[in-house]
Amino acid sequence: MTTELAERPPMPQPTTSTPRAILQVIAVIGITLSLFQLYAAGAQPLGLFFQRPIHLGFILVLCFLIYPVFGQGRKRGVLGWAIDGALIICSVLVGAWVPMNIDIIANSIFPRQIDVTVGVITALVVLEGARRAVGLGMTIIGAVFIAYAFAGSRGELPFLADWMPGILNHRGYSLDRLASQLTLGAEGIFGLPLGVAATFIFVFVLFGAFLEVTGAGKFFIDLAYASTGRQRGGPAKAAVIASAGMGSISGSAIANVVTTGAFTIPLMKKLGYRPAQAGGIEAAASTGGQIMPPLMGAGAFLMSEFTQIAYVDIVLVSIFPAFLYFGAVYLLVHIAAVKQGMTGLSADELPSTRKVMADGWHFMLPLVALVWLLVSGFSPMRVGFYAIVSVIAAASARSLWSFARAQPTMDGFVALCRRGLSLTAQAMELGARNAVAVSMACAVAGIIVGVVGLTGLGLKFSSMMIAFSGGNILLALILVLLASLILGMGLPVTAAYIVLIILVGPALTAEFGVPLLIAHLVVFWYSQDSNVTPPVALAAFAGAAIAGSKPMETSFQSWKFAKGLYLIPLFMVFNESIILGGPVPLVLWNGFLAILALVAFAACLEGYLFAPIAMWQRVAIVPGAVAVFWPDFRVEVVGVAILLAVLSLNWINGRSERSGEMAAG
Predict the structure, then answer these.
(1) Which of 223, 209, 228 is CA-nearest to residue 360?
(2) Would you give the DSSP letter of residue 295?
(3) Backbone phi, psi, residue 93, to 5°
(4) Are the C-beta atoms of residues 260 and 286 closer than 8 Å to each other?
(5) Phi-psi category of 409—alpha, beta or left, where left has phi over 0 and alpha has psi -120 to 50?
C-alpha cells in the first residue's frame, strides 16, 4: 500500500496521560472488531442476536478505553481505573450475554431475573458510553425516554404522570417490562438502528478509513484544485468539489471541514475571501457531503432499513437533489468571487491534473467497483466488503508497480510488505475508532425506538404535530425544521434523523400524505441543519477555528451558502416526481423548475448574477420563486415566466456592461 497518509477526521487522539500499553490494547481490540466485521460481511453472515450484541460489546470496551471517565486531558488514577474497569467488565457481559443464552431467552415465556438485571446493566452502560462518545445531550434524551416509560399509574414513577399533558399519559411500565423490551428483543437497544450500525455503517466507515490511510483524501483534494483552481474563486470551488467527495466518505461534516478545510480555507483567504466567508463556504460544502451519494454518511443505510426500499434505489434518487445542493453552493461561491473581482490561482500554485491522475488514478477503481456492485444488486454489506478488498488490491498493486520500477531487493520487498501490513492495521484501528460514536448514538436510539413502540408515543406525537400545524403541510415542515435544529444542538446527524423520523415520520406520511421515501429524505436533509444554522452551526464553528474568524459571523455565512438545504426538501414535497419519477416530460419539467428556482434564489440573495440586480428585480424574484413551488401547473408557468424575464434582463445588462468595458478599453 502507498506510504502517503491523508489527513484524518477528528477522533480521540492519544494524550500524554494515555499509557502505551492502553494504546496497544485499543489497537488490538479495534483490529479484532474490524476482522470480526469483515468475516461477517464477506464470509459468514451472523444472526442479529449474535452480530449486534457482540458489536456493541466491542464498541463499549473501546469507548471506555478511549474516553476516560474524567476526560481525556486527565489521568484516570486509581478511582478512574476502578470505574472504567468495572464498566469494561460490564461491556464484555453485555456483548456476551444474549449470544450465550439465546436459546434459553427465546424459549422463556417470562424473562428470568438475571436477564432483567443484565438488561438494566446494558441500558446503564449504553447511556454512559453515549455520554462519553456522543455527548451529554444524547444521554439525557435516552434517560428522559426511560423516565417516560416509567411514568404512569402502573409504572415505577407514577408521580411523573401528573407533569405530562393528557395526550402524553399512558399506563406506565415496570422495570422488568422495560428491561425486557430494551434488551431481550429486536425492538430496543439491539433493534434496527444498532443493526444498521453493526453491519452497513461499520463496513463503510472501515472502507473510508482504508481510503484515508492510503492517501485517497489528498488525491481527491488535489484533483479538485487542479480542475478548478484557475477559475475565479478557484479554491472555494475546489472546496465544494472536494467536500462532495470527501464528505460522503468521512461520514461527518465536522470531520470534512477539518480535513479539506485545512487546505481550502487558507487558500480562500489568500485569494481574497473574508475569513468568515472562507469558513462558511467550507462548512456549507462539507455539510453537503452527508447528502452526497453513494454513501451519504450513514443515512442511506438507515433509510433503506426503515423504508424497506433498496439501498441502490435511495442512492439513485438522491443524485439529483445532491447535484442541486452543490450546484447552488457552487453558484453562490462564483457570484461572490465575481462581485469581489477575484481571479484564479496561477498554474505554478496548482498541482498538475495529469500528475495528480498519474499518481492517484488507482483510487478511482474502488469507487467504480462500489457503484458497479451496488447497481448489480449485491447487498450493501457485501458491497462494502468487496470495496475494502478493492482498495487494498489497488493500493498494493500500485505499490508493487512502483517497487518493480525501482531497483527491487529482497530487503526492500520485506520492508514494503511490513509497511502494507502496518497501514492495513492502522486502517482497521481507525475504522473501529471512527465507528464508536455512531454506534453509541444508534444504541441510545434503540432505547428511544423501544420506548416509542411500548408506549405508542409516535401516534401521540403525530396528533400533537397536526394540532400545532393546523393541518398545514408547510407549517408542519417548519416544525420539523425547528425540531431538527434543537435536536442537532446535542445530537449528531444520524441520531437526530433517527429520533425525528420515529416521532414525525408517521404524521408526515399518514396525516399529510407525504410519500414514505420523501418523508425520510426531508427529515434526513433537515437533520443536517445544525451544522450550518445559527446559533448552533457546529461545522461552521470548526471552520471558524481554522479561518481565525468569529464563530457567529462564520455560522451566518454558512447559513447563507447552504440555503439549498432548506429549499430542496420543500421542492421534493411539492414536486414529487423528481424523487418518485413519473412521465418523462413531467420529470424534466420539475427538474428544470428546481434548477431555475435555485439559480434565481441565489441571484436574489447575492443581488448579482451576470450583473448587479436592481432591488425591484430582487423583489420580483420572490413571488416567482414561490410560484414554481406551487403544486399547480398554471401557477408554475407564471413563476417561470417571471424568473426567466428577470434573469434574461440581467443577462442583457451584463452583456451591455461588458461591451461598454471593452469599448472603453
Answers:
(1) 223
(2) T
(3) -60, -45
(4) yes
(5) beta
In angstroms, the CA 492 to CA 527 distance is: 9
18 contacts: CB under 8 Å, gap ≥ 6: none
What distance in Å separates the CA atoms of residue 183 and residue 181, rounded to the nearest whole number?
6
> Rounded distance, CA 11 to CA 205, Å?
13
Residues 6+ apart with CB under 8 A from 299: 290, 291, 493, 494, 497, 524, 527
Full-prediction pTM beyond 0.85? no
Asked whether the CA dihedral 564, 565, 571, 572 is positive or negative, the reply is positive
Pick from 290, 257, 329: nearest CA to 538: 257
Angle value at C-alpha 363, between 357 and 367, nearest 5 degrees: 125
Residue among 257, 192, 253, 264 at smallest CA distance from 222: 264
Q: Check if the beta carbon of residue 120 is closer than 8 Å to that of residue 176.
A: no
Q: How far is CA 520 from the centre of its chain?
A: 14
Query: pLDDT tens, 270-295?
Result: 777 888 888 888 888 888 877 887 66
Taking the domains of the chain in order of start, what are their residue ranges? 46-148+157-183, 201-441, 582-665
Report the 10 Å Cβ neighbour count for 456: 10
Output the CA torsion 158→159→165→169 (10° steps).
0
Cell output for 299: 443515512
Mean pLDDT for the chain overall: 82
Residue identified by cell 462539507 is: 286
Query: Helix, strand, or coil here: 609?
Result: coil
Give the Cα separation of 31 and 42 in Å (integer). Answer: 16
Helix extents (H) in 108-135 = 113-133
Is the separation of the CB atoms in 283 and 253 below 8 Å? yes
CA 500 to centroid of chain Cα atoms? 15
Residue 287 contacts residue 533 (beta carbons within 8 Å) = no
| Torsion region of 301: left, alpha or beta (phi above 0 gives left; psi -120 to 50 gives alpha) | alpha
Other C-beta atoms closer than 10 Å to the C-beta of 299 total 26
**Rg for the chain (alpha carbons), in Å?**
26
Pair 575, 639: CB distance under 8 Å: no
The half-sphere exposure of 145 on its side-chain side, counting CA atoms within 13 A, is: 30
- For helices 538-547 and 275-288, give the axis angle rounded to 10 degrees: 140
Beta carbons within 10 angstroms of residue 393's beta carbon: 16
C-alpha cell belonging to residue 334: 462564483
Kindly tell me if the per-residue pLDDT of 247 is higher than 80.
no
| pLDDT value of position 295 | 66
Measure the CA–CA gap between 118 and 111, rounded to whole angstroms.
11
